[in-house]
Write a sequence for this structure.
DNA sequence: TCAGCTGTGTATCTTTTGATACCGTGTGGA
DNA sequence: TCCACACGGTATCAAAAGATACACAGCTGA
C-alpha cells in the first residue's frame, strides 16, 4: 500500500530539487471518496490539485444536460482549475471524484511564480493543455462523425481496458450522460449489441464478449 | 494605412522593453493572400505566427470532412502551432489564410525560453490556451444541444457582428463546411429562414433582416 | 413487509439530418 | 458567343436519434 509520500515521489517529472522542496512545503495531501465535489461552477479556485491516485470527473452543466470535458487521472492536473486559478476567475465547471482519490493540492497563488521559475512545471502545464485540447477534439470528432452505437462500443472498450476488466459497472442512465445522449436510446443500442453477441447485460453492469 | 511596424506597436500586451527588443530582432513580418497555406498536417512547425492583421482558419481533416478548430485573428496566435513547436511535434492541423493577412513570425526555438523569461508572454500563452479551449467547448455544446438551424443563425449573426455588416458573403457550400454539415441541408434551412423573413438570399451572400 | 426508487425493456411516433438525384441559373473565361 | 463550372432550389427516401409512455424487476430502507 502506497503512502501519500510514496505517491508524491512518483512525480518524477518535476526533477528540480528546489521545486520538489517547494512542492513538499506547500503541498497538502487530501483524500476524497466517490461523489465528493472538488469544485463547483461559480466558485473561485483557491487550490490547484494534482491527482496522486483515483480520478476526478470534470464537466459543465447546461440546463438539464451536461458536457463531459475530461477525467483527471493519476499524475495529471485539471487545466480548467489551473486556468481559472491563474487568472483568478471563477470556475466554469464541476469536478466530482468518481473513486477513492488522493490529491496533492497547492495554493493557487503559487502557479504564476512556478511558471517562470521551474521549466519542468512549465512543460507540464503545456503538456496538460495540449492533451486536454486533443481529448476534446477527439470527443468532438466522435460526435460529428461517429454514430452513437460506435461511440458506445468505443466507450465500453476503453473503460474495460482502463480498468483491466471485461465487466464494466455502469448504468444505462449514466452511460447516456457520458455520451451526451438519453437513457432510452442507449438501452436500445445496448440491447441490439446483446442480440449481436457483442456484450451481455446485467443490472448495473455490462460484460464485454 | 498601417505599416507592419505600426501594427507591431499595437502589441501592447508585451510591455517588457527587453522582450519587445527581442520581438523586433527575431520577428519577421510576412504577408499572405486569401487561400495561402500556412501549415499543413504532418509538417514540423518552424515558425510561430502572431496575426497582425487578417485571419487564419485552423482545421483538421478527416477523410472527406473537416473539423473547424478556430480562427486566429489579430493579436492572437495559433495554439496548435505553439504546442507543436514547443514539443517539436508535427502539426496535426491545417492553417489557411482567409483574407489578406500579415503575420509576425518567430523561430519556434525561442518559445520555451520566452515562457520562462517573460511574464507577459507566459500570460499571453495561458490566455490563448484558455480561450481556444473555451471556444471548442462552445462549438461542442452547439453540436450536442443545438439543432443546425439554430447554429446557422448563430453563425450568421456573429459573422455579421464581426464584420459590422448585415450582408454576409458566403456560399451555402462553405457555410456547410463551417458547421460540419452538407450543402443541401444548409440550403434547405436557409430557404426556410427566408420564408420566415429572417434573411434574404442572394447568390454568394446572405442579408440579415 | 411494503413503498418507493433505480434500473431496464420496449413500442410508438416525430423530428432532424443525411444521401442522392436532377435541374435550373448566373458568371467568367476561352 | 458558348461552355464549363460554381451556386442554389427542391423532391424523394432512408436512417438516426429523441420524446413519451408504460410495464416490470430488483433493491433498500422505514
Amino acid at each position: 500500500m502506497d503512502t501519500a509520500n510514496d505517491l508524491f515521489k512518483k512525480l518524477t517529472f518535476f526533477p528540480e530539487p528546489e521545486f520538489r522542496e517547494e512542492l513538499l512545503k506547500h503541498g497538502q495531501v487530501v483524500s476524497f471518496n466517490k461523489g465528493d465535489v472538488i469544485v463547483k461552477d461559480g466558485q473561485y479556485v483557491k487550490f490547484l490539485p494534482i491527482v496522486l491516485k483515483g480520478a476526478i470527473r470534470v464537466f459543465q452543466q447546461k440546463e438539464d444536460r451536461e458536457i463531459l470535458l475530461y477525467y483527471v487521472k493519476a499524475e495529471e492536473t485539471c487545466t480548467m482549475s489551473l486556468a481559472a486559478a491563474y487568472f483568478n476567475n471563477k470556475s466554469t465547471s464541476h469536478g466530482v471524484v468518481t473513486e477513492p482519490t488522493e490529491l496533492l493540492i497547492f495554493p493557487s497563488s503559487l502557479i504564476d511564480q512556478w511558471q517562470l521559475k521551474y521549466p519542468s512545471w512549465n512543460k507540464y502545464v503545456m503538456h496538460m493543455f495540449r492533451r486536454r485540447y486533443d481529448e476534446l477534439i477527439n470527443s468532438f470528432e466522435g460526435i460529428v462523425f461517429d454514430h452513437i452505437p460506435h461511440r458506445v462500443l468505443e466507450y465500453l472498450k476503453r473503460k474495460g481496458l482502463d480498468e483491466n476488466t471485461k465487466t464494466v459497472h455502469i448504468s444505462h442512465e449514466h452511460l447516456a450522460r457520458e455520451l451526451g445522449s438519453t437513457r432510452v436510446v442507449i438501452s436500445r443500442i445496448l440491447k441490439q449489441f446483446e442480440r449481436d453477441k457483442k456484450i451481455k447485460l446485467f443490472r448495473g453492469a455490462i460484460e464485454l464478449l
User: Anything to note?
Assistant: Residues 171-173, 183-184, 187-188, 190-191, 201, 203-204 of chain B lie near DNA strand D (CB under 10 Å from a C1'). Chain B has two domains: 4-144, 146-208.
